[in-house]
């Protein structure tokens, strides 16, 4: 057995992996990189199966009260056309996803301080009463009582990405936010019984391999149900607009090492991974990912949800996404899994 295979065994078998070992995996090159991807794929198959779960995204609002340095939805982007879908529009999108066989919807928006939490609670109740779908929310930091309101209305899951666990880098990227507040929100979400997800951006300006190692260790300690990892993509209307995009190989390495370290979390091949110079979602699915996220945001709103430029599938109809993803799955000898895909850590 090679030293690298022994390293893979040691990390995969550890409840508390050593930082130096994770860093060594992230620095893999040549044949080692392919061995890393194979091991992540083997672990994904053993723990999550070969079925690829589908999560229908409905980007219901582009309004945002934050000024994150990398995001096209930042409040300082005055030229962006803002919108918020109404209840009927959201429910129509959800029903379209349900009619395609999908059993999870992700309601996503900017971090909007003007969002009426009682209105969103009513939307959640309407979805739960009219469908069998699991509801995931991704709407940012809120007070505990709001998270509790939505949980009581029937929300099953919550996605709140940390983006980076380096507090100094976090402050530079989020000038009007607080790192400890982010951590507290993640703690509260788990305490309230949400299936909780987080994640990171790979390739952020100023980010180091040590930062990425700490991100992975953070995911391990928190034992998240879902982990989303994607590349930094420079938006021209942000302070980081002149920076280079993240490297796809670095993204795939972080994805693979995270799968090895946190072997039972759901991990998507993100839309951002598919929106670089070419679509790398198949590579992500072969490096540890087990989820795809078809976009059910209707036109014309889909083109206005501009987190980053060159976002994939902006002009297609929602109905085209599922057949496309079935084709992607079959291309690598896998299939679409139309179950809810709840966390492996709970009994539902």
TrEMBL record:
SUPFAM superfamilies: Radical SAM enzymes. [4Fe-4S] cluster binds at residues 64, 68, 71. Binds 1 [4Fe-4S] cluster. The cluster is coordinated with 3 cysteines and an exchangeable S-adenosyl-L-methionine. The keyword Iron-sulfur applies. (3R)-3-methyl-D-ornithine binds at residue 138. GO terms for molecular function: 4 iron, 4 sulfur cluster binding; metal ion binding; transferase activity. It holds the Pfam family Radical_SAM. InterPro entries: Aldolase_TIM, Elp3/MiaA/NifB-like_rSAM, FeFe-hyd_HydE_rSAM, HydE/PylB-like, rSAM, rSAM_sf. Its cofactor is [4Fe-4S] cluster. S-adenosyl-L-methionine binds at residues 163, 182. Keywords: 4Fe-4S, Iron, Iron-sulfur, Metal-binding, S-adenosyl-L-methionine. Gene3D superfamilies: Aldolase class I. It comes from the Bacteria. Residues 50-270 form the Radical SAM core domain. SMART domains: Elp3. The keyword Iron applies. This is [FeFe]-hydrogenase maturation protein HydE. It comes from Velamenicoccus archaeovorus.
């Amino acid at each position: 057995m090679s030293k690298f295979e022994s390293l893979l065994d040691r990390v995969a078998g550890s409840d508390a992996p050593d930082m130096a070992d994770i860093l060594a995996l992230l620095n893999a090159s040549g044949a080692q990189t392919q061995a890393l991807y194979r091991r992540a794929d083997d672990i994904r198959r053993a723990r999550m199966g070969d079925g690829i779960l589908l999560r229908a995204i409905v980007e219901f609002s582009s309004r945002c009260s934050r000024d994150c340095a990398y995001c096209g939805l930042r409040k300082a982007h005055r030229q962006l056309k803002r919108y918020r879908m109404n209840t009927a529009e959201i429910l129509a999108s959800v029903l379209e996803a349900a009619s395609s066989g999908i059993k999870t919807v992700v309601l996503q928006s900017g971090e909007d301080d003007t969002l009426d939490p009682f209105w969103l609670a009513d939307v959640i109740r309407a979805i739960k009463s009219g469908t069998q779908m699991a509801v995931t929310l991704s709407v940012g930091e809120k007070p505990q009582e709001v998270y509790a309101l939505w949980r009581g209305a029937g929300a099953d899951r919550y996605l709140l990405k940390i983006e980076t666990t380096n507090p100094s880098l976090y402050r530079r990227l989020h000038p009007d936010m607080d790192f400890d507040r982010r951590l507290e929100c993640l703690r509260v979400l788990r305490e309230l019984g949400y299936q909780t997800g987080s994640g990171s951006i790979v390739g952020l300006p100023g980010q180091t391999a040590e930062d990425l190692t700490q991100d992975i260790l953070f995911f391990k300690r928190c034992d998240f149900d879902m982990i989303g990892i994607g590349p930094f993509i420079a938006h021209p209307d942000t302070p980081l607009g002149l920076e280079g995009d993240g490297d796809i190989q670095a993204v795939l390495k972080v994805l693979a090492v995270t799968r090895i370290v946190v072997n039972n979390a759901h991990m998507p091949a993100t839309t951002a991974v598919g929106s670089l110079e070419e679509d790398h979602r198949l590579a992500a699915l072969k490096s540890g990912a087990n989820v795809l996220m078809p976009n059910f945001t209707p036109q014309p709103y889909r083109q206005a949800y501009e987190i980053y430029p060159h976002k994939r599938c902006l002009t297609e109809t929602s109905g085209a996404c599922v057949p496309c993803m079935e084709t992607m799955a079959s291309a690598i000898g896998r299939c679409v899994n139309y179950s809810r895909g709840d966390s492996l850590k709970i009994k539902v």
